């Protein structure tokens, strides 16, 4: 059974904890820091709970230094919440606020173990044979419910010929999904043609899409077959369709309605049988409101919409994706990497991934190239922007402000935190305003103003 050591000068508290932990943990108790250190020398302790009114932060420091494997939980009052803040900075694992809420205590301790157990374990990269490659779906990784929906839409959509609109931020896999639809459709023995709309001016895009007749404009020395004709019997993927100009939109609408068009400078209608898949990373409704996108075209391509969620909302897929890319690029990068340190994984999980899966892929490739001679991916191997973005705990997280908000308003909560901080500084400064202002990195005038406003004496 795991053992909890309580440090509290009040012996009634020892009894309370024995009752609370009952059958779950063995409880030992000490009335002072010295007694606790004695016990720690002779007993194997899993968690120490320190009452701040009994011991100071010094005892916490001693325990942290001498017994690195022991978990520590601080017990303090809301008035001395700064102690908890300091304690967390010194490496305490959690804190509990007095008066104790009996139901909160055991979960706090339990949580410690579940997260600790997870933390200690390296995450192993699975082997190529274990990796459940979604070959059926073009190796698209997606365990999260939103992606499971996408897969079933892919199957349904692949059967028909309706136009498809794929939305999602850049790098979320829109092209990959378009290819999967084509691959699963009856058109899969015919071409899959990609046209990136933003890369070309309106006139060039027109001749790219629809082709031109010889002599139709100055440089048109030969007849050109456009992408629509090349895609005949297959699929055309129109990437970033919002960037297509209005005249080309009109022509595209006609293709969608009649499956026919004229080459630039041509007089004979050309008929095609093409599946159209369009993609956009901007909201087309906004573009319609601005007048840069035709509403009738939107409704025509919006028949089967597929939305791809950003990576930051697909936490459950992150490990699978990391795994997949480590295996995918190991040969190319001559990499031996087989494990991921939990700190590295945690950090990847906290990052907001503006470039989505494309960015993740690049990050993994870069790590394998630079550190592929090492077995384990470490936090230190991550690019600086990822480490920088998440290695600080926000005050909100560390103070558990959300809990305070359950019982008081935002203004009251902010004031009470301010009050605590100032009172604490005044105490440390022995009541000298100038010194307290120094601690708080503010001016004496501003401090005085706050003291008056908050009614601190
Ligand atoms: N779910 C996924 N599983 C595996 N690789 C993916 C996934 N989504 C995207 N990728 C990869 O990420 C990169 C960007 O995908 P892409 O389809 O070009 O995104 P988009 O068209 O939305 O910008 C590609 O290399 C692609 O293979
Ligand atoms: Mg793309």
First-to-last CA distance: 49 Å
What are the bound molecules?
adenosine-5'-diphosphate, magnesium ion
**Helix- and strand-based class?**
alpha/beta
Low-pLDDT residue spans: none
Helix % is 40-55%
For this structure, what is the CATH class of the largest domain? Alpha Beta
Spell out the CATH superfamily of the largest domain: P-loop containing nucleotide triphosphate hydrolases
**Average pLDDT, all residues:** 87
CATH fold node name of the largest domain = Rossmann fold
Give a quick account of the main beta sheet: strands, pairing sense, barrel closure: 5 strands, parallel
Question: How many extended strands?
Answer: 15
* Strand residue content: 5-15%
How many domains, in number, for the residues? 4
Spatial strand order of the main sheet:
2-1-3-4-5
Shape: elongated
State the CATH architecture of the largest domain: 3-Layer(aba) Sandwich
The total of helices stands at: 21
Tell me the Rg in angstroms.
32 Å
List strands and helices in order, with pairings:
Blueprint: E1 3-7, H1 11-21, E2 26-30, H2 33-42, E3 47-51, H3 57-66, E4 71-77, H4 81-89, E5 94-98, H5 102-120, E6 123-124, H6 145-159, E7 164-167, H7 174-184, E8 192-196, H8 202-210, H9 227-230, E9 235-239, H10 246-258, E10 260-262, E11 269-271, E12 275-280, H11 284-290, H12 295-301, E13 304-307, H13 315-328, E14 339-340, H14 342-350, H15 356-371, E15 376-377, H16 384-390, H17 395-399, H18 401-405, H19 410-428, H20 433-439, H21 444-454
Parallel strand pairs: 1-2, 1-3, 3-4, 4-5, 7-12, 7-13, 8-9, 9-12, 14-15
Antiparallel strand pairs: 6-14, 10-11
The site of magnesium ion (MG) has 3 residues, from helix 7.
């Amino acid at each position: 059974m795991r053992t909890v050591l309580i440090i509290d000068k009040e012996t009634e508290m020892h009894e309370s904890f024995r009752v609370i932990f009952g059958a779950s943990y063995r409880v030992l108790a000490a009335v002072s820091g010295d007694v606790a250190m004695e016990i720690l020398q002779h007993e194997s302790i899993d968690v120490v709970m320190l009452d701040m009114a009994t011991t100071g932060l010094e005892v916490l420091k001693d325990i942290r230094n001498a017994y690195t494997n022991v978990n520590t939980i601080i017990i303090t009052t809301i008035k001395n919440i700064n102690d908890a803040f300091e304690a967390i900075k010194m490496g305490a694992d959690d804190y509990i606020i007095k008066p104790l809420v009996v139901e909160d205590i055991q979960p706090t301790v339990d949580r410690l173990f579940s997260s600790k157990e997870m933390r200690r374990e390296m995450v192993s990269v699975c082997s190529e044979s274990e990796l459940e490659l979604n070959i059926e779906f073009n190796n698209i990784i997606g365990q999260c419910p939103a992606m499971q929906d996408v897969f079933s839409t892919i199957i349904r959509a692949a059967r028909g010929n309706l136009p498809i609109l794929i939305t999602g931020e850049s790098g979320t896999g829109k092209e990959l999904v378009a290819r999967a639809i084509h691959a699963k459709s009856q058109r899969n023995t015919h071409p899959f043609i990609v046209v990136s709309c933003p890369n070309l001016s309106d006139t060039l895009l027109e001749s790219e899409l629809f082709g031109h007749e010889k002599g139709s404009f100055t440089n048109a020395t030969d007849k050109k077959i456009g992408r629509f004709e090349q895609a005949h019997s297959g699929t055309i993927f129109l990437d970033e369709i919002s960037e297509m100009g209005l005249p080309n939109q009109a022509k595209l609408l006609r293709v969608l309605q009649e499956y026919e068009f004229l080459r630039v400078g041509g007089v004979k209608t050309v008929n095609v049988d093409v599946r159209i898949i369009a993609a956009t990373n901007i909201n087309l409704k906004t573009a319609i409101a601005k007048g840069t996108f035709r509403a009738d075209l939107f409704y025509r391509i919006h028949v089967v919409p597929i939305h791809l969620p950003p990576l930051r909302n697909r936490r459950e897929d992150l490990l699978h994706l990391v795994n997949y890319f480590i295996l995918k690029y190991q040969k190319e990068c001559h990499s031996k990497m087989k494990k991921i340190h939990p700190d590295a994984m945690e950090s990847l999980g906290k990052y907001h991934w503006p470039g989505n899966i494309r960015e993740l892929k690049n990050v993994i490739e870069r790590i394998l190239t630079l550190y592929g001679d090492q077995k384990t991916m470490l936090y230190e191997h991550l690019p600086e922007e990822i480490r920088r973005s998440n290695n600080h705990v926000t005050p909100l997280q560390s103070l558990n402000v959300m809990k305070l908000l359950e019982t008081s308003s935002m203004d009251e909560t902010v004031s009470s935190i301010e009050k605590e901080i100032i009172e604490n500084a005044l105490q440390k400064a022995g009541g000298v305003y100038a010194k307290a202002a120094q601690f708080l990195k503010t001016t004496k005038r501003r401090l005085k103003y706050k003291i008056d406003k908050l009614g601190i004496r």
